[in-house]
Amino acid sequence: MKTDVIVIGAGxxxxxxxxxxxxxxxxxxxxxxxxxxxxxILMSGGGRCNFTNMYASPENFLSNNPHFCKSALSxxxxxxxxxxxxxxxxxxxxxxxxxxxxxDSAKQIVDMLLSECQKANVRVVNRCxxxxxxxxxxxxxxxxxxxxxxxxxxxxxxxxxxxxxxxxTPFGYKIAEQFGIPVTPVRAALVPFTLHDEDKEVxxxxxxxxxxxxxxxxxxxxxxxxxxxxxxxxxxxxxxxxSFWEPGDTVSFDxxxxxxxxxxxxxxxxxxxxxxxxxxxxxxFPKRFVQTILAVFxxxxxxxxxxxxxxxxxxxxxxxxxxxxxxxTEGYRTAEVTLGGVDTDYLSSKTMEAKQVPxxxxxxxxxxxxxxxxxxxxxxxxxxxxxxxxYV
Length: 392
Ligand code: FDA
Fold this sequence. Notes:
FAD/NAD-bd_sf, Elongation Factor Tu (Ef-tu), domain 3, FAD/NAD(P)-binding domain, seven-stranded mixed β-sheet, binds dihydroflavine-adenine dinucleotide, 21 strands, alpha+beta, 392 residues, 2 domains, 32% helix, elongated
């Protein structure tokens, strides 16, 4: 079958790009091996899809070339996508930090994308594994489990490696390499940390506890919450910093519960109170956490008045800079995204077309552009998909 455009991958980027190309009158087919379309979108945001972020800007993305994402993000912005969501009457709300979620269900976003494709006469074919690509003089030949397709423009929107059970494959990277386009080193990002046995033994008792924390690593800091799990550490602050963490690095957590924490403890001590340190800390932290963290920090639990000023300041400093050395991450099994990907030096930032392979485009997560947690990765899918859709 011959068509103008083939998009491999019916995820966020692929479906959105296909609809834009279809609206331009291009004959478009989207191929995906999954049974269910938009699997990741359906799972996202706890089933409510954090579909964009009101404050999205190039600073929220990691890439070997931090300038690459600027063009696409400025030509199709979060406000453009929000306008589309409004056009479909999808009720949504800001959860925190500009993160927009559907009030009801992520399925509304998938339905919207499929409806856009339908309006643009795009054919979406599921259960269609793409097995290989060949290039002829003018066309691409796409070999699939369901036969052969031929097209002028080929869009690779196969995503990254995270969550193989949702259909993730390295296929996009293989296509890049086949056409001589390098792929920067990839690793799991926005992913929980696992701990060394000695830390795990103590901290797994806190499974389910969440506290506010500022997580820092490699000159980057995120102020959000952290969650203790039976395997290690998770929660927004941890997922965010995991994208900046390299094996062997230590992460510093500032878990100071209030700006005037030290002053308050000193004032209480000076008031000659009989309160135990743990009782005072219980005002700020979950009880279960206090017992464990005092043990982790090796702090004796005594009435406040029994510590001298220097000792209390030293205690506060432990809360200010709790150093944890993760053993690793949970990997692609639970990672939200893949860091790294198709080398942006080889792509046009205006069109997403491969500079040396006319007609071949890469969009979405397969490209070396990775967003922070908070709707940024979907915004990259929409923006990169939209720009490619104008040129394919
Ligand atoms: P995506 O992975 O969505 O799609 C790729 C498609 O290609 C898949 O449908 C796959 O089946 C198909 N494919 C792969 N190989 C193939 C082959 N050989 N043949 C045929 N088809 C093939 N981001 C965000 O901004 N807000 C959020 O709330 C969340 N939440 C979230 C939760 C969870 C659990 C995960 C795993 C991820 C998120 N993300 C997120 C990240 C976000 O989902 C992700 O960045 C985008 O879905 C990437 O979109 P793409 O279209 O690039 O790839």
